[in-house]
Amino acid sequence: MYEVASHLATESKKRQKKAEKDLFARSSFNRFYYATFLAVRNEISPLDEKWENLGHASYPKLIGNTMQAEFKKNIKAARKLGDTRKVSAFSSAATAAKNLSSIMNSANACRIQADYFPENKVQFLDSDFQLGPSKLSAAKQWPSNAKILAKTVAEAWRIV
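Given the sequence above, the corresponding structure tokens read:
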């Protein structure tokens, strides 16, 4: 999916007509979002069979609410036991869950802008483009950043 998103972004820059530039650019944001979701799903869904068919919009709440709360609960329990290794793992995971949820929410907000609000045009900058508050340069980082954070969350979840 990342390759498709990158291709659409490159193609957008090549287009001469503003309407075509805008369509390819907004499609690239959409695909970067789904590349992000797929990276997260790949790490998180195997952790619980109930999560295997979870839709993309459910992941930020699952990660930012359910999983983060469980990590915080386990931090307290590990502290009581004096298990500094688990305290560290759960603390890192709680922060990662918060950051991952934030990335997914921001990326999804951009996807919604791209998909449902064509009147909000993409702004073409010197070497970048932007839709709402999201720049292409940031969108390109969503999948890799999400994957790193999701791995941290998944590793800690396995020891909950």
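The first strand starts at residue 123 and ends at 124. Try to locate this feature in the token string yourself.
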